[in-house]
Write a structure and sequence with these properties.
The chain is 55% helix and 18% strand. It is an alpha+beta fold. It folds into three domains: 121 residues, 2-Layer Sandwich (Beta-Lactamase); 126 residues, no CATH class; 166 residues, Heat Shock Protein 90 (2-Layer Sandwich), CATH 3.30.565.10. The strands form three sheets. A five-stranded antiparallel β-sheet has the order 2-1-5-4-3. A hairpin with a 2-residue loop joins strand 9 and strand 10. Helix 6 packs antiparallel against helix 8, helix 6 crosses helix 11 and helix 9 packs across helix 11. The longest helix is centred in the middle third of the chain and has 73 residues.
């Protein structure tokens, strides 16, 4: 009986052990099934995420921070550069970025790994498998993981179309500027012709006077030559001397001696005036290059004043206070000249609107000043004209905004000035105005390319 009892107890213990083993096995199987389901869900989520990434046009690149080898690329990345998965997984970002070597690239991404910077956006070019290049904008982040090393994720956007649109916009702006320049030349042509015609008339009148005077002097010289010949033969008679005296009185030699030098000086001044106008017009009309060049702003201002003289001389005086220590400023000279012309003509028109039409002697004042402020060149153009009403002051730089009558302005002058100063020169332009008391435009231009507004 004791043996039987012991055997029964052994069976019971074995059964209990088997039961618990079976229960643990069942629990393990359930856990394995749960993890398997979770893994399937994760794989499904990853596949769904991958499919989503493959649907976007941008390229997505993931690469190892240590080896720089690509670990993942989406379909957009393959389409952008033409390599297969297998080819890319044996490559690094440096292999498709001709503008970088490995040292430069690691130096650029180091702040992301050191948490000194959250993300990095830059433009570069990618080299395709066929050797062509693709302009791209890259958004780069370093993604840290809870376990294991992090990974770099780059989202790469093809900017070919954007660059083409920007180029087209630049060409459109260039054509617009050229059109306004031609418009300005057309508007100024009559005034310039008048400015040239006045000194030319002086020159023409003086030449006629010199021609007549030369005829008179020629007759007198002939008498003196006859006198000289007879004097050598000791046969001078009173009649010859009398005729010389009469000739001197007839041509009024004292008058000619005073007027001929004056006529010559007037003619020289007229020629100088015409030359300065032609030279100013030549400088203004000269097409600028695609790159900025150092220019003398003071000289450009003087040139602009000269070619626009007929626009302002009847309504104002132009005073200048140009800093002698102003260095040359990197500019697009033709575009800057157009800006100055627009502002000068606008100032003259603003003054004209305030003048008493019945008082021909009444005039306003336009003051143009330059000065050097640290590494900034400043230009101030002030008039004592009508001023700009407060309610429209914020809109004056908008394209096509104008308060002038139809046919007297396109509304492009100040819009072009803002674009040229701010977008093309990295400077600033602001306006200070009091209605009924005049307006001042203040332009700041950087002396070096690295200064930003």
């Amino acid at each position: 009986l004791m043996a039987m009892a012991g055997f029964v107890l052994l069976l019971i213990g074995s059964a209990t052990h088997v039961f618990f083993l079976n229960r643990r096995l069942h629990t393990a199987m359930e856990e394995l099934d749960r993890k398997l389901i979770e893994r399937k869900e994760i794989i499904a989520d990853l596949n769904e995420f991958k499919q989503a990434l493959d649907q976007i046009n941008d390229g997505v690149f993931m690469f190892n921070p240590d080896t720089l080898n690509f670990e993942y690329v989406n379909q957009g990345a393959l389409s952008q550069i033409g390599y297969s998965y297998g080819e890319l997984f044996a490559m690094t970002p440096v292999d498709i970025k001709p503008e970088f070597d490995e040292q430069q690239f690691r130096k650029m991404i180091d702040p992301l790994m050191q948490s000194r910077q959250d993300s990095l956006t830059f433009t570069t070019v990618h080299r395709r498998k066929d050797g062509t290049t693709l302009p791209v904008e890259v958004f780069l982040q370093y993604v840290r993981q809870e376990s294991g090393p992090g990974v770099f994720v780059a989202i790469v956007h093809d900017i070919s179309n954007r660059l083409a649109e920007e180029k087209e916009k630049e060409q459109l702006q260039a054509r617009l500027l050229h059109t306004q320049k031609l418009e300005s030349v057309g508007q100024l042509a009559a005034g310039i012709a008048h400015e040239i015609n006045t000194p030319i008339q002086y020159v023409g009148t003086n030449i006629d006077f010199l021609d007549e005077s030369f005829s008179d002097i020629t007759r007198l010289i002939k008498h003196f030559l006859t006198l000289l010949t007879k004097a050598r033969k000791m046969r001078v008679d009173e009649s010859l001397l009398g005729s010389i005296e009469e000739e001197l009185e007839e041509i009024d030699w004292e008058y000619l001696a005073g007027e001929i030098p004056q006529a010559i000086n007037q003619s020289k001044e007229g020629v100088r005036r015409v030359t300065s106008i032609v030279l100013a017009m030549k400088e203004f009309s000269h097409p600028g290059g695609k790159d900025k060049v150092p220019i003398d702003l003071n000289r450009l201002i003087e040139t602009t004043i000269t070619i626009a003289r007929n626009e302002w001389k009847y309504v104002s005086e132009v005073k200048t206070n140009l800093a002698e220590n102003l260095p040359q400023v990197p500019c697009f000279s033709d575009e800057m000249g157009q800006v100055l012309l627009n502002l000068l003509v606008n100032a003259a028109h603003a003054i004209a609107d305030t003048l008493d039409k019945e008082d021909a002697e009444s005039k306003g004042t336009i003051t143009i000043a330059t000065r050097l402020i640290d590494k900034i060149a400043e230009i101030r153009i002030r008039d004592n004209g009508t001023g700009i009403p407060q309610e429209i002051r914020e809109r004056i730089f908008e394209p096509f905004f104008t308060t002038k009558e139809v046919g007297k302005g396109t509304g492009q002058g100040l819009a072009i000035a803002h674009d040229v100063i701010v977008n093309k020169h990295g400077g600033t332009i602001e306006v200070q105005s009091t209605e009924g008391n005049g307006t001042t435009f203040i332009i700041h231009l950087p002396l070096t390319e690295d200064i930003q507004p």
